[in-house]
Amino acid sequence: MAESLSVKSKRFLKALNGEAIDRPPFWLMRQAGRYLPEYLAVRATPPDFVAFCLDPEKACAVTLQPIDRFGMDAAILFADILLVPHGLGQRVRFVEGEGPRLDPVTDGAGIDRLTREGFHDKVGAVYETVRLLAKRLPGDVALIGFAGAPWTVATYMVAGQGTSDQKPARLWAYRDPEGFGRLIDLVTEVTIDYLAAQVEAGAEAIQIFDTWAGSLPEAEMRRWVFAPIARIRAALKARFPHVPVIGFAKGIGAMLPELAPATGVEAVGIDAAVPLSFVRDRVQPGAVVQGNLDPLLLVAGGAALERGIDELLSTLGPRRFVFNLGHGVVPETPPDHVAALARRIRSWTP
Amino acid sequence: MAESLSVKSKRFLKALNGEAIDRPPFWLMRQAGRYLPEYLAVRATPPDFVAFCLDPEKACAVTLQPIDRFGMDAAILFADILLVPHGLGQRVRFVEGEGPRLDPVTDGAGIDRLTREGFHDKVGAVYETVRLLAKRLPGDVALIGFAGAPWTVATYMVAGQGTSDQKPARLWAYRDPEGFGRLIDLVTEVTIDYLAAQVEAGAEAIQIFDTWAGSLPEAEMRRWVFAPIARIRAALKARFPHVPVIGFAKGIGAMLPELAPATGVEAVGIDAAVPLSFVRDRVQPGAVVQGNLDPLLLVAGGAALERGIDELLSTLGPRRFVFNLGHGVVPETPPDHVAALARRIRSWTP
Q: What is the CATH number of the domain that holds B48?
């Protein structure tokens, strides 16, 4: 079995499988990105970010950069969560210094204009990137595929841009839950196809990013965050029983212990604001946990960074734990600090 | 004793005191504001927002408007958390459609340019507003004074504006905790003076708003959120033992049960994302709780709003509970929905 061979040789997959390992594996959300000069060099062309994500050679190159430099235990496919609306026929563009802009979907007619037809053609370059990575990654580095969770993707599709409070999607969901549910269902279904194709191309684990889950009250969180992730997890499980799924629902705080039981994910991403004792006592017993160093500690560096790393390792390691940040690497991060982090984790002993 | 008379006659103060009452008191964060046409009429002049806050007749008038219209059990002084940096000599202005702009304080020299001298002169109009309100409020309506918590106020002082991630303050705090601590100490001390003067002018309860507490990891939350609030709470307690304090630390999720024990506040504000069972089981036993209806439900209205109100009342009421939103009223809110909410709470029986 290819799966068991992989699990045998890759620390990251062993950790997700709950096995005993020498030290926790590590990777960093947004480990490929603007803080690396070699990324900026490749990113210079083409100027359009969607086109860049859909250029397999370039996406593969930037995915490999942090692995080459720092030796993470896992690489995450370089792509963007808004490739799913792009694949559905929604116009997506990125404005320099402002972020993504989409032609908003605000009603049933807007949903009707989206189409699953041609989805795989529109995003097929992503699968090609995964195939290249599966060939080119070092043998002990695992490959993570990913997608945005339906709720978070829908917040962008409805607002037409990033919002601090996700007001347009939340209001639609309150006023017309059936109509909004139709959008969530469509995104859920196409995300299943998208992730299944990534696994078929060589992804060994999947992460689902629900960046904007934290604004929702409990009932809405169950309906728009937990239920769609559960549906994706079940569909993937039926086809690929050995591929683990990490759910990262940022900012859900007191609801975190319920994410894995409610969705079936094997691992739960933890943001930086969650206290480690809560993670250890209430989340880790039910799931592998991944996180949660403050990305700004990686900017600050020094003794504060070392203390943060050590506390995380000693509280949550070595088993059922994947070392990561609580959110993505920020552009101001000195690469030397990432190198120091990698050294410290590698030299750690329980 | 004036205090016991107030407590006897005012539902809001009884609730904060843990006494049995007929139904939970209610008020709404940002209940005076742009969703009310009568607010917009008064707000039209002067154009400068700081000057508006420092006009006692106008600030008093807009504070009373929602009480006249909806009959809340408490009124909160109309002011802004950035009056404290204004009082310290930092330049504060509000740009229409963009929000506050301050000349950033980014180092020790910047802190040295701030001064407590003349603080009460610069913000004395606020105390006059409180005196007017104490005279003009209906006899059964409690008067709440407030300030921003030192952490949240400092995030604006350091960034010079609102930020989604509070990066400038968080980085300063990591790189130079002693230097940043000097800013926090200064804001803490002047906030104690500011709140004490509000109580002397007639405020019967105090709310401390820590809107941006949710981005901090545990150790930083204890140092920059809990410790300064505890210091303010203790200083007020020494002078005004009967005046209750509500702490509202938005987005702190799993850390919520620790807020009251760590700071000594009598009541804890709850944001909309916290599940009610967690509030009931983990927070309410140690503090009166206040919250947490999603402000967007008040925009949506209808059956969803009614269900939300009923669930909140039946789960957290009638004792040790103050009905409120999870965050401020938003400008799109139809006043009719607020009227419907007021009717529903008033007619509720346990």
A: 3.20.20.210
